[in-house]
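Backbones bend. Shown next:

***
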Amino acid sequence: MARNPKKVSDLMFRAIIGWLLLAALIPLFVLTFYLSKEEAASVKPVNEVLDQKIKLEKVDFSQNSYMYDRDGSLISEIVSNDENRVFVKYDKIPDSVKELFLRSEDRNFYDHKGIDFMGVIRALAANVKNHGISQGASTITQQLSRNLYLSHERSFSRKFTELLYSYELERKFTKEEILESYLNTIYFSNGVYGVGSAANYYFDKPLSSLTLAQMAFISAIPNNPTLYDPLKQFKHTKKRQERLLGILEKDGVITKKQYKKAVKEKISLSLSEKKNLYPDYVTYANEEFTDLVSDQEGFTKRLKKAKTAGAKKAIQKELSEKVSALLQDGVKIYTALDPSLQQRAVYQLNAQLPYQGVEGGSAVINHQTHQIVALAGGKNYKKFDFNYAYQAQRQPGSAIKPLLDYGPYIDQTGATASSKISAGKFCSSGYCPQNYNHKTYGTVTLETAFKNSYNTPAIRMLDTVGVKKGFSYLEKFSFEHIVADDYRLPSALGGFTKGFSPLEITDAYTVFGNQGAYTRNHSITKVTDLNGKTLYKWKESPKQIYSQRTNETMRKLLASVVKSGTGKKANFNSPYIGGKTGTSNDYKDIWFVGLTDQYTMGVWVGRDRGTVESIYSSSPHLRIWKQTMQYAR
């Protein structure tokens, strides 16, 4: 298409006048402070004025954070502020990359002080010759000023401010620091910032492993990230790559042979999408990271002491800002995730619950190491969705009996598995609970009452030790939603105001795998900075909940449930298996929480609305538990 001569002439005139004005403003600005010796005593030096007017705060580049499984394999990349960046230090950036940008963007970088007046003149001459604006005159320092401190608005006032910032950058930082910052901030399209991330994203390699051709290819992008987007404009990117290689060859940076080889090399993109594995577990680990920071930095104590909702909100905001800052600086979060067990838990949850509207959640803990190793957050779970494994507060039914009824009763009375208790009718202050199918069984052993999940014996146990005493045991665990109204007899059968999550109740059951001692279990093993320095680590000490004698009795009772009680379908060949079933009123929730020698696993199945009575006989909760745990190693 033919150019309109008048438009080209007007455009050139405005551009030439604008650049000449900008070129003249800086020296005029500086001279203003040095003229008039009469007022020298009252006039501050120009650098002091600039220091007051232009605050160059320390730049902390947003970097990616990383999450790893128990073997140190990457499972999740956390990108802050939508800026996918892997920071590369100056001495780790290949010289070829530095030369590609210096010779194409700012040949006089090491000679000027942020503003290249000769570059302005050359750009004007080239634009006049080409009858248009074909070249700019921004130095690398000016581009960095825009990226860090200013907008990309096209106006003379913004341009003048950019020049002042560039002058200050050159005063405050070395050339190497400026070039390092520039190469780590420039945009490479597709949400990628910096040469390190560009190498990872487009070629799935670290920057140091790229060939000369690949380095030149990614170096072609920032000049115009839209025009040279490799995913949409590959041919344009390739042509600019060849021009850049030509500049290096012409300037003697590379030989003719190197140039020809690089130009002929086939560029095959190997896109590296951000790691985003195991969403059920990663969602929880992200939340636990906040809890860990809160605990270690004192926010948890402050929140407990806060007396008003406004004070709590302010502390929570401060905590959120702290967590965001850590993730932006870049951290490595190491977890106890067992990938094979995680996959198994998720698969079984989906496979055993084909029923519409029926949901589930499960948690697996290695009680020997006190680590959460797998979580299934719901069917077809997507990252950051509602997670049934740790967010669902459900009525535990009889799954609470070992913790609130039998454990305290045996601990306080010295009873054994063969001790006798009444399974007959029970009434207290108008509260008259029934056994399943409204049957009465007379006097039975604790083992019989436990494995068949009779209700009236459990009520009698809590009534005998006292509600307050029974709950004193429960308070030592990490249940977060027990309220004052729960301190009553119906809680003996799982009738709580809010209930518990699968992770909470599984966490508590680990006490039976640790000789009656409880240590809170976590998914995160440690958090380090990007250089490997440990920043945070959980500090937990065990609490003795039940005596060892009580614990051994409880293990015997739990084992009877899977051998000959309500949990027989969970049994398989193992040195030890024990557990407890649970069913809430109207079959809204069905549970099985149990343990082997090494692992404790809790499974919940239910509906948000309605009942699962129609599928109760098929025992999906027991099948999920068995099919997951029998493959645990």
